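Regression test attached.
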Amino acid sequence: MSQQTHRDRLVELRRELHQYPEPAWREFYTTSRIVDELETIGVDELYVGPEVLAEEERMSVPDDDELGRWYEQARQEGAREDILERLEGGRTGAIAVIERGEGPTVALRVDIDGLLREESIDDDHVPATEGFRSEHAGAMHACGHDAHATIGIGVLEAIKDSDFEGTLKVLFQPGEEMVAGGKPMAKSGHLDDVDYLLAVHIGLDHPTGEVVAGVDGFLAVSHFLAEFTGEPAHAGGKPNAGENAVQAMATAIQNLYAIPRHEDGATRINAGDVGGGSATNIIPEQAYIEGEVRGETTHLKDYMQERADRVLESAAAMHGCSVEQSKEGEAPSAESDEGLVEIVHDVSTDTRGVENPIRRDSLGGSEDATYLMQEVQQNGGLAAYVGVGTDHPGGHHTSTFDVDEDSLPIAVDLLSSSIREIASKRP
Amino acid sequence: MSQQTHRDRLVELRRELHQYPEPAWREFYTTSRIVDELETIGVDELYVGPEVLAEEERMSVPDDDELGRWYEQARQEGAREDILERLEGGRTGAIAVIERGEGPTVALRVDIDGLLREESIDDDHVPATEGFRSEHAGAMHACGHDAHATIGIGVLEAIKDSDFEGTLKVLFQPGEEMVAGGKPMAKSGHLDDVDYLLAVHIGLDHPTGEVVAGVDGFLAVSHFLAEFTGEPAHAGGKPNAGENAVQAMATAIQNLYAIPRHEDGATRINAGDVGGGSATNIIPEQAYIEGEVRGETTHLKDYMQERADRVLESAAAMHGCSVEQSKEGEAPSAESDEGLVEIVHDVSTDTRGVENPIRRDSLGGSEDATYLMQEVQQNGGLAAYVGVGTDHPGGHHTSTFDVDEDSLPIAVDLLSSSIREIASKRP
Amino acid sequence: MSQQTHRDRLVELRRELHQYPEPAWREFYTTSRIVDELETIGVDELYVGPEVLAEEERMSVPDDDELGRWYEQARQEGAREDILERLEGGRTGAIAVIERGEGPTVALRVDIDGLLREESIDDDHVPATEGFRSEHAGAMHACGHDAHATIGIGVLEAIKDSDFEGTLKVLFQPGEEMVAGGKPMAKSGHLDDVDYLLAVHIGLDHPTGEVVAGVDGFLAVSHFLAEFTGEPAHAGGKPNAGENAVQAMATAIQNLYAIPRHEDGATRINAGDVGGGSATNIIPEQAYIEGEVRGETTHLKDYMQERADRVLESAAAMHGCSVEQSKEGEAPSAESDEGLVEIVHDVSTDTRGVENPIRRDSLGGSEDATYLMQEVQQNGGLAAYVGVGTDHPGGHHTSTFDVDEDSLPIAVDLLSSSIREIASKRP
Amino acid sequence: MSQQTHRDRLVELRRELHQYPEPAWREFYTTSRIVDELETIGVDELYVGPEVLAEEERMSVPDDDELGRWYEQARQEGAREDILERLEGGRTGAIAVIERGEGPTVALRVDIDGLLREESIDDDHVPATEGFRSEHAGAMHACGHDAHATIGIGVLEAIKDSDFEGTLKVLFQPGEEMVAGGKPMAKSGHLDDVDYLLAVHIGLDHPTGEVVAGVDGFLAVSHFLAEFTGEPAHAGGKPNAGENAVQAMATAIQNLYAIPRHEDGATRINAGDVGGGSATNIIPEQAYIEGEVRGETTHLKDYMQERADRVLESAAAMHGCSVEQSKEGEAPSAESDEGLVEIVHDVSTDTRGVENPIRRDSLGGSEDATYLMQEVQQNGGLAAYVGVGTDHPGGHHTSTFDVDEDSLPIAVDLLSSSIREIASKRP
């Protein structure tokens, strides 16, 4: 395939995925489209939906109504009926395997979900002017996962007919944006025999031509939802008869932010989405806090979570309320292994289009690829998180985010060459 | 008209209004229907919409979209085009005047708005089983204002052909539920020459056959909406860069409830509807508190409001936020005048269907009829708030509220007889 | 005894007591001096110290060091050794009984303790210029209990040789200022056979010549001390290792003041004396709140106490602290009985020096005479709290408080005449 | 002087100073005794009290009563009258200068103040058993500043008769424990011509025989005192009439701890000593927070201070109070310069008694030597903070802290050799 044809093919697929962004556990169209491609390519093993997830680890799964709407929408947009059936109940994602002889097992993880954000209609927003803007009102690929899925397909194609010896697994992971899908895939069993894991992300404020062989500095994170329930009462007539869930919530908010700093390093807390009550003249019986805790290490995140739990329980008790907590998403911290970073960095210096190879950089955010990295590392394998620069006009998660499609072939070349290099270096 | 026919007529009108409940400033169908009735009856003067309101005093007016939707709905339900035109922009309500010679000017105030609440579909909820349940999803006459409007029409009919000498004004007031419509009507000028004002409410936990000649104990009330605006920032990467509107909100809530009690009597405070933020990983830039303060007297309500203002301003300043406050509704306290209570009480002992005449009772809630009462009293007139019992299966403002339609003719008889008695007693 | 001699005698005793003010459970000199007087007068029964107290009900008892210091001081000031021995351990107070035949048992309660406040040295403060200012640095009779004790003695003298038939008990109660002594005396058994109880207070913003036959409106009150204990840690090096008692305290304060108002009437809350921590660089391990709750009724006070307990417990738990609560004082609400108020009011209209007899007035504060009133009322007896006006330059509890000594004979006359009248009216 | 004599001499002086510990700005005896020694040694210039301080920079100066008491005590303990006169008003400390030809100006800073802490009387606390325990009840040298002053004297003696060429300044700084004396000495002008500055501390959890050539990781710190003033009122009778300083304080505490973490590094906040109110039945009119903010850099400390100021001001405003803030102490962060660390480290490897020379270590606390280091560095000079290990049974600031006196000659040798080496290396 010529260089141009190769690029065209990747661009075409990415643009198609871009038009149908689907958030966590609703990636029905996306998974169907990916499986379609995988069958076209012809892989040795193909796992779909429930086969790629430890189901009991799924977090932030929407209710049946919500799932039903996206499911139906995917069907109407042409998702394959036989694949849809396998994804019922929001069990999305896929894993493709290529086996080529005796070498090591190398895995590549790409994520596939979109965000709940309305895409820009600006004149200088390419998807809008070029006709591949999101078809889903209020949803958007604003973090490049359309590109990631495309890169996963591209790498499979590149490896398939190469001299690679070993086993390649490409993991198409759902639900990364809510840090909800990493753990179920990490615990699915598919990682058990993986010797090397690469995860990839484009952008991250690096322009096209820059590559970071090892991204570090992931903050461990946990998303929680705390729902307070008290007793309503008429605020004029019987103020004493209520148990005020909004007072519980406010007391909790004040004390969550006041959790002590930790000697061992950076911690974070945010009550990012809160609310309660229904009418000015009713003592509020319901309130909620959706928030997150983070830590420079998993240990620090756990410290924050324990303190937060104590605050939430006590604030509820103080106001005669109960509180239900659920974990909405979670990811540990992680570090890229030097052995793997070394290989990717060396490859990157020789990759067409890479003008500025960087060995390591720090992220300062969170990502649930860390679950997969940790899983592999705990089994004695090596893992690295690779950044592939792309010019992106708007910031990640904003309505004008877009990728420079020139970065697609760069990523595919870098990753497939790295995978072949890893296999060849193995004793 | 026979007793039975009289009752049937009232019931028919009440049931029709019941099917089309409209909240504050959206009483398009209701006003149209009332004006229709008034033209049929034939009154001496008829004022509609802007003619009955001091417009600058309107509170809680919805935005144009919201008004537009209800306006269009009323049109489709058959509201008269010529009347709708006069109500544009949410200027609803009407005043009808009958002039009969030299006597005093007596006014009767009835309110006409519904509530945003889904009506019950229970088997023992009469409007559901008898086929006159609300046609408007999420809206309901759950406080009997459909009956009030009907009573207003009934009293006009009863007085029209009676021996009454003087001037009768019946005020069909919008927006009572949000204590938003009383002040604009009180300040419209139509109260300036009123010597006697009666306001009426059915139910109030009194069964059919009970009548309270003078209801007292209204708590002065003020509804406020406080909107905090800060600065967003990434909660993981730049927590210090944000100005956290949710922290401002939580600090305000804690301190609002902690406003000191007052030596002069009962006060109330409630943060009844609050919220803020948008995502767990963003330092919240927006938050709001919709709440209310009350006092046994207007002075006490003002004390609470002043302290609340101070809390809201300081909480915003503490967290680098701004806060915008708007008054969403307001009503003073008020007392029924003994001179008028005496007359109504005497009449009630002779009214058919009244088995338990009560002189005075206390409400413990709020009502913006107090604005009209205060206006009349300040001009040297007398005012009384009359309660007419009705068996109501569900409590006021609940989805199973309903009225015993037998109370409709009782109310009409009581009020029209009282009005005639007032006029005849005047020197 | 002539009128003048009578007055001189009362003035002399009051001035002597004024010089030796002693706070709760430290009334060693005062009790000794009172017993001395009682023995001089000659009463039929005389109970001292432990004999007048249900010891397990004593509240706010100081520690042994504090008691020892006041005990020793009293000894050095000439308190009788034989009486002091009976008061050991801070068991102060006395009850004197006169028995005169078959009539009813009438009791008069006077309180005898002083306050911890430095007395004024102003030129227009009579005790300072006339040479009977407090000899105890930092302590003062700033609420007239020196006058009350004197009045108790005066009434005994007046009744002793009168035509009174029945039994008179005069209760010299310790520890009123801390609402700590009323309950132990009420539960001592001495009230069991009391048919009528009068309690007396001078001043209360009424001038000399005014008398209130029945004082009402006592707020039930409870004083509490909550002590938080956490864990210290270096604030720079190990902020996470501490459990912060000051954070617990601050959370509690905010939420104590925010306890909801009650539909049934007035409530009060105050965190009047708080503190915590020791050094800026240590996470505070200790903190305390000394506060009070009040209610228009005992029920309302209990509501406040229950909510306060919940707040204190939860605030401690939230911050990993324990909290110890102790009740430092308590008194219920009470009402004066009309039967007794009537008698005292009638007598007051005939009492020399009374220019303005008032039937009833409301206090708006708290007093533990209510325990004794309640005890008598629960046994079927009647009780009244009598106010005797006195010109007082400074307010109660201020350093310039003083009494007009002309009010002493007025009080003695009013009360002894009332007691005789009560006995004579009894069937 | 023999090795043994040298040690004895140091031990004798240290033990004498240990018996008379004096806290910030009260080092009257201590300064007098140091000046006495300096005159005995014979230095070229000697500055005392006001001559060594930029007076307007003094923080945490006690009131006149407190100063007067310590001044009088020092006199009675034999402090020289002529020196005491120069220290009036709490202007303590001294600087001694030796000039030896053309070389560079090297300064050594030692601090001289004690702590307000009762010294142990334990059997294994050497000062207690050897008879040199503190003579000042409640005060103690619990951080080794007695040793530091002694080392300063020892270094002067050692340099005086050596081959040193240049100028040596030894700075005897008052008020380090409250981070109150560093800035006034830094801004006194005496640092203007200093080319090299060494500061020294013993212990820091390093045993005798360890030396740290360059201590780093000082957290910038600021101590503040915030005093709230509101309005008192009777908590039962007029709760609304007060302006509650304790509510302001509690609101501030909650929000101080909730100041957002900072992306640039570690921050700290502590409300370490708080209190308010006076009686349970009075709405509190006074309250205070004595606290501290810290930051990994001065910039981070300033961020915390700005946010804290905003919280304190707004909390006061919210409750109708005023707040007065005073800075009680302050110190920036600082780093030891490699050039100087190198020299000291090299010397330490050759110093008798040094078994474990360490190049660098991190403190994690605060110290106002950083003001002097910063001053020298801003003028183009180099600075290093040197740690000299000493076995200390109790931790710093505890009642059983003591030093191993063998570390005294080690420190003197290390520092005097380093100073000579610095001078000789200068081009």
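Expected vs. actual: identical. The interface with chain A takes residues 254-255, 257-258, 260-261, 263, 266-269, 364 of chain D (CB under 8 Å).
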